[in-house]
Specification:
Helix 1 (about 10-20) packs across helix 8 (about 320-335). The chain has a 7-stranded mixed sheet with strand order 3-2-1-4-5-7-6, with helices on both faces. It is globular. The model is unreliable at about 345-355 (pLDDT under 50). It is an alpha/beta fold and about 350 residues long. It has helices at about 10-20, 35-40, 85-100, 120-130, 195-200, 290-295, 310-315, 320-335, 345-355; strands spanning about 1-5, 25-30, 45, 65, 105-110, 135-145, 155-160, 175, 180, 190, 205, 225, 265-270, 275. It contains 9 helices and 14 strands.
Length: about 350
Amino acid sequence: MNIISLFSGCGGLDLGFENAGFKVVFANDIDKSLNYTYEKNHHVPLDNRSITELKAEDLPDADGIIGGPPCQSWSLAGKMGGSKDKRGMLFFEYVRLIKDKQPKFFVAENVPGIMSKTHISEFKKLIGLLEAAGYNVSYKLLDARDYGVPQERKRVIIVGYRKDLHMVFKFPPPTHSKESVMTIDGRFLSKYVTLKEAIGDLPDALPAQPKGKANENLPFPNHEYMVGSFSPIYMSRNRLRGWDECSYTIQAGGRHAPLHPSSSPMCKISKDKWAFLEKDPKYRRLSVREAARIQTFPDNFIFYYKNVADGYKMVGNAVPVKLAEAIARKIYLDLSKMPHSKASVYYYSVAEKHE
C-alpha cells in the first residue's frame, strides 16, 4: 500500500509505516537541511515546497496520508499560540489536502497540548473538519512506553478512515506496562524497555567539536554529544533517569537532552531549582545516537548534519518508530480485511518478519 508523507522530518513516522509494509511514494518538508538524511534512509526525494503551495493534483495517488503538523504552537512548553500562530495554521492545510485528495486513511500526530483546555475548542474544530471531509475519526493520547519505546513520551494520535469504507479505527492495545503482567483478556504485557536495554551496549561517546560542530569519521555513527553549561531552565527539574528506568522525553534541542544514566545524581534544592549532589560531579548529555536509539531508530539509520544541534533536532522532532509501527500495523491489518484486498498475504509476511 502506498502512502504520502507530509511534514516528514527525518522520517520516524515513515519508517514505522515502512516496517509495517507501506511504501512512501511522496514526501514533503520545507526544511531543506533534512533532504540528505531523509533521502539516504528512505530512498525517496523530499519535496521542499511549503504545504500551502501543494494542491491535491500535485500528489500521487495513495492509500493514505500521514504526517505530524508542527507542534510548537500547541505545546504546553511553548507560547500556546494554537491556530493563531502561523505554524498552528499549517494543521488546517493538512486537513485541506486530506479533504481534496480523499485517501482511504490519514494519520496525524501532535503534542498533548493540542487537547489542553486552552486549545480544546480548536482541536474539536479540527476533528469536525476531518469528519466533514468524509472520515470516521478516532483520536487518543498515547504513551510511547506502552508500545516498546524506552521513553516517557505522550502524544496525540489522530486516525481517520474514509466513511465509504465503513470502518472505525480502534487503537492497538499496549504491549508493555510498568510491570510484566497478563491482562484479563489473556494478553501478556512486557515490562517497559529500560535505558540499559536500549543503550547499555554502546561504547563511550565523543564530545562535539568546538562550537558544536560534528566529529568526522566517528567509530559509531552519530554517537557524539553536545557540551556546554546547563541553563537555569535545564536545572529547573531533574534530568537524570537510571539504567533501570525509561528515559525522559527526547526533545528537539541538544541543550535540553536528558543526562546519560552514568551521570552524577541530581537533587531538588528549592522550587524549580535542582543541583548535582557531588562536589565534583560527572555528567554528560545523551548522544545523538543514544537519543535515536531511545526513539527506536535502528543503528543503520544515519543522521547527516554539520552541527550536532541539528542531529538532536531531527531525532527529537521524530515520531518514535515503534509507536508509528504499532499504529501502521493495525491500519494495514484493517485494510487487508477489506474485500478484494491484495494486502493480506504481504501483511502476514511482514508481521512474521517482525515477531
